[in-house]
Specification:
The protein is α+β, with helices and mostly antiparallel strands and 341 residues long. It folds into three domains: 4-65, Arc Repressor Mutant, subunit A, CATH 1.10.10; 117-256, 2-Layer Sandwich (Endonuclease, Chain A); 264-337, Winged helix-like DNA-binding domain superfamily/Winged helix DNA-binding domain (Arc Repressor Mutant, subunit A). The protein contains 14 helices and ten strands. The chain has helices at residues 4-21, 26-33, 37-49, 67-97, 100-113, 122-135, 151-166, 183-194, 237-253, 264-280, 285-292, 296-310, 315-324, 331-337, and strands at residues 53-55, 62-64, 116-119, 139-144, 170-176, 198-202, 209-212, 216-220, 231-234, 255-256. A hairpin with a 3-residue loop joins strand 7 and strand 8 (216-220). Helix 1 crosses helix 3 (37-49) and helix 11 (285-292) packs across helix 12. The longest helix is centred in the N-terminal third of the chain and has 31 residues, at 67-97.
Length: 341
């Protein structure tokens, strides 16, 4: 039995031989390409289905056909089916579009009465976010704490984000400074920035949220262990305006995330300063890590290095000693260390 790849290989040789002879005569073709006549007959059937061989009348001989002519012959019925399908799609859209108005009106009225909806299933949250991204017409702003984003997350969010931007919707995203050291996040920022997104980072702590058209806010529920949380969808104007102003306040003091820059050293210096400040305040490792948007294990590595460098015997002593030695940066120094300043 001839495999598909073998059939393609022999078919090309057989077609060339048929051009040379002026016809596809099975015994001749079999000799020319080095196969048995049964295989040559299968090749003839294959080429005739591709319209590369035409049976002559009345002599019944199979003669080679110009591939461009064969393509036209094969394309016509396909194009006709596509045309019919497009007409059917247009009719379907027209029919269903009549029901869009009442549905949207009902949804707006329902949400006006229910200003806070709580979704416990993460899949429902993702579905609602995807729906809002498609409906968003003016602006989407997001606050993404916790450092860099995983490659899996970026693969999922990049296509709908680029679609949103290509529709002319403005997008602003705020990360913490630790996201600058993430290669996957830097690559994502570069791609969306090229399409018009604005990305900034800050050293301040904040919670995750997404705001669509300054009208709808998604607020994730508190995470329990590794389980992905649900979210609350808020449409109350007073609450939405408050959260939008909160975003604007942090946005104004944040620095532009320029993905092409390699300012890791500046980010590292600022991070060390922030850790020293929080250590001096007596905060625990996990609290410091959460405030700075990094893993607790990573935070502890920084703390160990700082305590050894200062010559302290404990993390708390390191913070106090750093304060006494004048090693804690003041606000002006922190701004000078901030990437992009």
């Amino acid at each position: 039995m001839t495999t598909r790849s073998e059939l393609a290989y022999y078919s090309l040789r057989a077609y060339s031989a048929a051009l040379k002879h002026g016809e596809f005569h099975t015994p001749e073709i079999a000799r020319d390409i080095g196969c048995d006549e049964a295989t040559a007959d299968r090749i003839r059937v294959h080429l005739s289905k591709l319209r590369l061989l035409a049976e002559g009348h009345p002599d019944g001989r199979w003669r080679p056909v110009d591939p461009e002519v064969a393509e036209v012959e094969l394309r016509l019925p396909l194009e006709q089916r596509i045309h019919v399908g497009q007409q059917e799609l247009a009719r379907l859209h027209h029919t269903l579009d009549q029901f869009t108005g009442p549905y949207r009106e009902h949804t707006r009225a329902q949400r006006a009465q229910e200003t806070i909806r709580v979704l416990t299933d993460p899949a429902d949250v993702q579905q609602e976010v995807s729906l809002m991204m498609r409906r968003c017409t003016k602006e989407m702003v997001t606050m993404q704490p916790g450092g860099g984003r995983s490659a899996e997350t970026i693969r999922a969010v990049l296509p709908p984000t680029l679609d949103l931007l290509n529709r002319g919707v403005e997008m602003r995203t705020l990360y913490q400074h630790t996201a600058r050291a993430s290669l996957t996040t830097r690559n994502y920022v570069r791609q969306v920035a090229e399409s018009g997104a604005q990305i900034r980072t800050t050293g301040e702590a904040f919670e995750r949220l997404i705001i669509f058209d300054a009208e709808t806010v998604f607020v994730p529920a508190a995470r329990s262990g590794r389980q992905v949380p649900g979210a609350a969808i808020v449409t109350d104007p007073t609450i939405v305006n408050f959260m939008y102003r909160t975003f604007e306040s942090k946005w104004q003091s944040a620095q532009e995330f320029e993905a092409h820059r390699h300012d890791y050293q500046q980010a590292a210096e600022e991070l060390r300063g922030r850790i020293l400040q929080l250590m001096a305040a007596g905060l625990k490792d996990d609290v410091i890590a959460r405030r700075l948007g990094m893993a607790t294990r990573t935070c502890r590595r920084y703390i160990t290095g700082i305590t050894e460098e200062i010559g302290a015997v404990s993390r708390f002593q390191a913070g106090v000693k750093a304060a006494r030695l004048g090693l804690l940066p003041d606000e002006e120094e922190m701004r000078s260390l901030t990437p992009g300043s």
